[in-house]
Amino acid sequence: MAAAAAAAVGGQQPSQPELPAPGLALDKAATAAHLKAALSRPDNRAGAEELQALLERVLSAERPLAAAAGGEDAAAAGGGGGPGAAEEEALEWCKCLLAGGGGYDEFCAAVRAYDPAALCGLVWTANFVAYRCRTCGISPCMSLCAECFHQGDHTGHDFNMFRSQAGGACDCGDSNVMRESGFCKRHQIKSSSNIPCVPKDLLMMSEFVLPRFIFCLIQYLREGYNEPADGPSEKDLNKVLQLLEPQISFLEDLTKMGGAMRSVLTQVLTNQQNYKDLTSGLGENACVKKSHEKYLIALKSSGLTYPEDKLVYGVQEPSAGTSSLAVQGFVGATGTLGQVDSSDEDDQDGSQGLGKRKRVKLSSGTKDQSIMDVLKHKSFLEELLFWTIKYEFPQKMVTFLLNMLPDQEYKVAFTKTFVQHYAFIMKTLKKSHESDTMSNRIVHISVQLFSNEELARQVTEECQLLDIMVTVLLYMMESCLIKSELQDEENSLHVVVNCGEALLKNNTYWPLVSDFINILSHQSVAKRFLEDHGLLVTWMNFVSFFQGMNLNKRELNEHVEFESQTYYAAFAAELEACAQPMWGLLSHCKVRETQEYTRNVVRYCLEALQDWFDAINFVDEPAPNQVTFHLPLHRYYAMFLSKAVKCQELDLDSVLPDQEMLMKLMIHPLQIQASLAEIHSNMWVRNGLQIKGQAMTYVQSHFCNSMIDPDIYLLQVCASRLDPDYFISSVFERFKVVDLLTMASQHQNTVLDAEHERSMLEGALTFLVILLSLRLHLGMSDDEILRAEMVAQLCMNDRTHSSLLDLIPENPNPKSGIIPGSYSFESVLSAVADFKAPVFEPGGSMQQGMYTPKAEVWDQEFDPVMVILRTVYRRDVQSAMDRYTAFLKQSGKFPGNPWPPYKKRTSLHPSYKGLMRLLHCKTLHIVLFTLLYKILMDHQNLSEHVLCMVLYLIELGLENSAEEESDEEASVGGPERCHDSWFPGSNLVSNMRHFINYVRVRVPETAPEVKRDSPASTSSDNLGSLQNSGTAQVFSLVAERRKKFQEIINRSSSEANQVVRPKTSSKWSAPGSAPQLTTAILEIKESILSLLIKLHHKLSGKQNSYYPPWLDDIEILIQPEIPKYSHGDGITAVERILLKAASQSRMNKRIIEEICRKVTPPVPPKKVTAAEKKTLDKEERRQKARERQQKLLAEFASRQKSFMETAMDVDSPENDIPMEITTAEPQVSEAVYDCVICGQSGPSSEDRPTGLVVLLQASSVLGQCRDNVEPKKLPISEEEQIYPWDTCAAVHDVRLSLLQRYFKDSSCLLAVSIGWEGGVYVQTCGHTLHIDCHKSYMESLRNDQVLQGFSVDKGEFTCPLCRQFANSVLPCYPGSNVENNPWQRPSNKSIQDLIKEVEELQGRPGAFPVSISSETNLSKEMESVMKDIKNTTQKKYRDYSKTPGSPDNDFLFMYSVARTNLELELIHRGGNLCSGGASTAGKRSCLNQLFHVLALHMRLYSIDSEYNPWRKLTQLEEMNPQLGYEEQQPEVPILYHDVTSLLLIQILMMPQPLRKDHFTCIVKVLFTLLYTQALAALSVKCSEEDRSAWKHAGALKKSTCDAEKSYEVLLSFVISELFKGKLYHEEGTQECAMVNPISWSPESMEKCLQDFCLPFLRITSLLQHHLFGEDLPGCQEEEEFSVLASCLGLLPTFYQTEHPFISASCLDWPVPAFDIITQWCFEIKSFTERHAEQGKALLIQESKWKLPHLLQLPENYNTIFQYYHRKTCSVCTKVPKDPAVCLVCGTFVCLKGLCCKQQSYCECVLHSQNCGAGTGIFLLINASVIIIIRGHRFCLWGSVYLDAHGEEDRDLRRGKPLYICKERYKVLEQQWISHTFDHINKRWGPHYNGL
Fold it and tell me: What CA–CA distance (Å, rounded) separates 1156 from 1232?
């Protein structure tokens, strides 16, 4: 039949390869057109059949993967050429058929025209840069693509940029997810009316072709999947996917055609009839049958059944006709689960049966079929998703499925399909090897589906989404359960998750949990969850798996050998799987109407807790030495209680259990608090560091609100409802400090080592203080909580904005803007903190913008309790106290060492009033009394901290005393009346004054109390007195607690079968080895009040220091002005307490007065109060200490001085001789150097030279100077590019190559300087060392194994004294000090004589004090340092000669080094010498030493005297016109020479040290040449008319007396001389156009000449300053020329300054001016006759360079980011993973990119060598940071872009808008120009050329 159809079509078998392609295409088009016509007819059956036949042949799945059916090696064969070609062929056919005979592209365009695109829907994959705006988002997952974001208006919104982790899609246009105000211009709702209807015939073919195409794809997927035993390997799956790449891409392209095509695809994908017809496998087509079988096998192997026969399962089809499955619970699950996952279960011994048992408990009989194992596919979409999952979510498929989402109908269908496959997805995920990638892809899909509330609600109702999710989560966790070892190891029935399993360790569960949290954020879904009792029961079961996981057992003997890190997994699991869903649910329980939900949760929570207590066999004592930090059930219960009271106005007691349950509930959270104290007391040290990690994580900001806060709150609830005595004694028993609470001075603690006692006692008291003063859930409003959290964090340390956001717990008040009112964060911040803008110490570390607490916060809001609760590290508490102390000192509020301040609390919510009963129970009073007594008696193990807490608790009690005492007088006879207990009542106010006379204590026999039985002692053992005073008090906390417990139990249950335990339970009896306890009776005779008063004396260190203040001013008692907040130390605390006690009861007042009278006879009050006295004492002590210190220092200084003197005498005796000796020659002092290694001082000598520590580095900074004032900008668009033709380096290069083209090479190399790029810069820290010391120092560094930031093998080291980075030592030349040089005296020789002397001296090679022939240590060192200097820069920056290796190269290089250093110093001074003064670096200049080294080497090359330019400058030669151009290349004419280079050559050729008058002579001679050059340049710049005018004007004055010093005369002469060559002749029109017509006035000409000469004068003055040590005079900018000229001796001394200064007056011609000028011009003449253009260019030397700058950066970082992060690299044309841009020249480079690697150098390193001679400054686009490359090292410099809060955002993690910080950029530029990167940045590392 197929053949017949083919014949009808035209017999063209598409598989015949011999046909020419174009013909084929034509035929395809024709066939397509023919079919389209046939189908358009009303009766189109024939056409349809014809098309089906054609498609069957073209798209047959048999041929393309024919090999795949053949056998195992299918995949290998499948990759062959044949199939590939056939598939392409098939795609071509499809495209033709879709287009129906037209062109495919035109068809696409036509379809696009009908796109009603209201949604963007752009799908992206991981690492894509997207935006999230919290102001516009409705769902927290909302995201926008960059294009939509920038086209919408989000100014002032809370948005950020982020890198997508899992991929996502753009929500623009979707009003379910974001507010319409945020839509971009393209997606602001278009009304669909103006989109025309799609013509029927346009998409008709698509409807026929696409079903076959998709079926074909599914067949491929079925074929390609082989189910081996261990799951298919990655490789096979990827191969199949690669083959299918074109097909899936084709589908993806279709989705991008817009809405019209998407709706066709939706029809095809969801049509059940099509699917049935094509895939049922019932037809006669063998291929289809086979493929159907493969499909069934795949289903089976996935543990899924295919429900052939519905009746067996008894499932009715849902009436809606959708293919959703009725979602069921767990009945049938047990068997299947056991069988599917048995492999997982065998791993844990015996857990299989256990798992079964657990599951039996889970199965609820109401559900009728398992969710987990049935899948039935009814449409292409469903099977496509099935295969997508099987192939582990290939990216292409995911993108295709998501691209369809803008189609609403598809979205619903796809969501239902996704839910139907949810269980299967989870199974696949669990088995997957690549679970991370797969998780990301799952979430990529699910977040698009579940963020939409409407959709989530629909699926929840129709597909039972909640049931599925909870069941799947439960199932997932069941695979990794182990038996809980908490409490009763043998008989425990409780199972917990095993945190070591991969499932938990790798967070494999997070996609499911994140989906669950996502759907619970929708109110409608959460309500269904909270109403469904069955679901709540299942969920509590799920939560109980985490209850008690990761149990820690305290190691008592040896250190644990393996520290498990499972605690990360445990904390993450509790936070993500339990706490986050809890917060989600809580957010919907905000109003009264939701009371019912809370009751449900609390009810099932308590049931689960009861089950848990039963399962672990818990009675009343927790097992010792174990702790778990994970009690999610307790925390659910606590948080729902809190919400109920706070928001829903529920009565607390209606949701609380009975007393017994409360006692059980309290135990485990209390155990955690005690364990925290134990861990901080180092009692768990043998468990390793991880236990500390757990304690920290438990209180850390992301966890605290889900962990410690609910625990403390639950304890507060228990405390408010239980008997206070029971609670208090439980606390001290849990903290193991019961035995410590005895009046005796010695005791025995059976459960605690002595060294831990103190910190455990502090822990117990601190816990009580926190418990009683924390109000987080007891009445504070959300804003108050936020404020308290913020104050606590700011008090510990100043914080940046982002770290504050991070440190403040997210719930109860989320900070994301989705909840309205998030602005409260900013408003609270501005109320409590001041912003400190980032400051820059130059060379200091870069600071961030910080927030610091306002003064009034310290004054009134600093709350130590909150700080203690929130500190992860204990040192932060200390830090907060130190800052508080500093504030008090600074503001003068309190001078001494303050105690933590006492702060009044927010009032309690009425439901929790019972909490305050803790403060009014006898047990606590006895403890406080005992501790006060012990502190007063100085017993061991008590600290100031303990006292502080004790006083704090007393004060709290006084603040919250319940009722005023009614009958004060009645209780006078108190002590006599009550015999049984310590105190008469439970009110602290009255108990404070109660005297306790005798106490019976149990003490070891060795205790001092026992031995006091001598008759002389007090009658403590005298029974008579005992009888009179009432029996002695006995107290046992443990016994009290047991008694209370028993009472409570008896009250609550009739069965009192538990025997009351004896008072000392066996557990507490002492081991036999310890000394026996005996009973002693102590005489106390104190009350709390009397103890306090005595304590006051003790603290103030004086007797009778306390004087009741009300005796002077009775008002104090009536209106006690007790501030809400009080500063001070222990003394002020005691005074405050006594005052409060007195004001609350008259009795107390009387008793206080009595005690004071008894202790001290009444004296009139002194005027000095105690506090003042204390400060006086302190001052006195300080004064003494200060004097002592001065004395010590003085002594030390004198010792040092005498030592120095003796040392000096040994080394340099002549140092002390006064300088003014009246001999003819003044004394020459030799320079003395200190060696920083051996510490000796002395001169540098031939055989033991001293050297300067120097850093040599190549630099191209000079080359970056430009002649243009406009700053260069960093390019931020394709148009802006930077061309480096105007830089200094480029101009000099052009000049040199021009000279080398026309003149003799060796002479060219003397006419210019190099080193503009890659010049060597030498800098020193100014310290000196002996060169032999340095060598041994280097040896020791080499043997030092410590990782240094530098490479010793490259000669790098740090200065031993100041640690500055260095890499060489510059030998100091033996000889005189610069300052008092005998050569400086001016001589009165004439200039002619001096010129001769200079010439002679230059002609004497090596006429040196040191002759090189005799190798001394010094000369060796000089050679080696010269080598170092050469090796510092690359060869290309040294060799400019045409003949490689010529000595001229070295010569040029050496004097250029001097030039580079002088030029750079000039730049460091700001480009001129106006500021004057010594060198910027002060003592740190090494130019003098450098000159010696260079001169020594320069004189090895003597210049041939014929060529010595000195001759040409100072002598007239015979001009021989015939000489002309005989030889090939002439010398460079002297007018083309660079005068500064000449100066350096002349000076370095002279023997050192140089005489000052020789120097001046050389300068004078060179100035004449310079001036002539200036005139010539001026003449070339001006126009023809100007020239002729000047020529005549000057000629008239030629005969005047000082014609040689008049610029007009000289100019006219130069013009006329140059006229002889053809220099001015070819001034065509273009010349005139180029030169702007300036009207030259004498002033402007003078300025022009001065500007030409200034650079030379500046360099010369600097040189003179370094050689002869003369200071540079400061001056105004306009007089710089004249000041420098006179400083250099160019200006005659008699020069008058009245008339305007003329530069020509500095001229001093050595030979007649006109003759020498004629001679110089003549040299040029023959050249310019041939090359006038070049001749002119060489004369105009650019002299005005602006200072170098880095590129100017745009204000906003986003402009850089958007352009560069998508820019392709010019070398490899890919978008780099880490793009970077050079800030010096703007080049775009790939950081670390292997694509651009050349000879093992990555691109950045390569660029740093080419652009900066080894120094590179790069901005990393994706990180916003700047990285510096210096040679072989690199460092992260920091960022110059900061956000609105002055913070960096490295790696753009926060994605907030960043703005340029100009100060930082200036600092960076400064470091670049001054070459100080090495010194200022500390963290360097080697880059191994890999950047």
Answer: 75
